[in-house]
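dude i think i finally got it to work??
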Amino acid sequence: MQESDFFNGYKAISNVWDEMYASNLAVRSPYERVIDYLALESVEDLNKKEELAQRLFMKQGITFTVYNSGEGIEKIFPFDIIPRIITSAEWDFVEKGIKQRLTALNLFLKDIYHNQFIVKDNIVPIDVIYSCPHFLREMYQVGVPYDIYVHIAGIDLIRDENGDFLVLEDNLRTPSGVSYMLENREITKRLFPDLLPSCGVRGVNEYPTLLYKNLQSLSPRQISNPTVVLLSPGIYNSAYFEHTTLARLMGVELVEGRDLVVNNQKVYMKTTIGLQQVDVIYRRVDDEFLDPLVFKPESILGVAGIMGAYRKGNVAIVNAIGNGVADDKAIYSYVPDMIRYYLNEEPILKNVPTYRLSNPDAREFVFANINKMVVKKTNESGGYGMLMGHAASEQEIERYKQEILKAPRNFIAQPTIALSTAPCYIQGKLQPRRIDLRPYALCGPSGIEIVPGGLTRVALKEGSLVVNSSQGGGSKDTWVLTPPSPKGEVTKI
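look at this
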């Protein structure tokens, strides 16, 4: 393995798990080939690759939207050219843990919308469920195809100071970001065409095919070519690039609410040759906007009467309506108990320690140690509504405490975790930045499939622990390596 000043100048953060360097600054073996390759590149060469990546993102319109930014709506998604590498053994562990977790969460959703055994057995309090704004009584006793509620999941993982994977959050409604995973890989192929095959990196490009296969399998009509559509809120949605990308890669129609109509409790798509019945809807519209006859009457994003067609079983909707109760941050703290209750197993992937602030003792403890805590609203996402105790002023903390006291059920707190770091190419230097990982799981009648990789999000601001793109974060390609052959050679695919 070669070394260079480029890598020798890397300053790992103490008491933090670094993905590339061990505590003694020895390079971890999965990164050796990458370092050997990059050590032959000059700073000028790497700068050119970084500029090429930015141009490709710009040309392909790979953007996201920040609604509260005064700089404009559309932004190019920041991309770091140094990959994040996960070994085959690490991935096997993550994959087993996610499958176990999603199996339990699916059972939980079926249970609370039907028999509610987990409530009757005092595992999850009924008031925690009923006080969740995403628990929809309209879904009570409504059957869903194959009893699958979570068809697409994005499970956010972090690594603590020991390198152990922890689940930070479950995203079970309309998880986003998979298009960035796909585009990151395509960009990396352009930047390092020889490096990926020599390292034995597993592919991610089968995701659209797997998703389309699962969507087709949910069709209520037993026909050879069911009609699948992707329902988008429209061009002003923050993830519209992803909607167009997935529709194109799957070969399905991208529609908005105005393109669909319900007649005789069936959903139809308006076409130039008349109405065409729709069998499966991959919706990227939130529950409360789906049907103005049932939820928000002022909504123009959904389709009037679609809930009636859904209840009747004439159309499949992905993900199922009402999933939000399972990714509520207050419910999150009960997931290990769900795994034990439904599966009689110990959780493979552990939660971050979580304090429910509706509990007076927990609230008192958190208030006394708030400078060591991250406090979150239970139904916010995108990094909004958080209090980072170690970085907040006394005035901010006091205001937040008053907000908590008004509605304590709406808040949880977690100890500040020293997120793992990975090397990033920033301003001509290799610098450590905090990261997380969002693998994407697809649940269908044949089981749970997880594409080997996911979206590694990066807190590009020095010292920041917030990886969300809306808060200044970016992403990098995630490489899952194939296991070595019996002779110790890298298996290529």
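The longest strand covers residues 429-438.
im so relieved honestly
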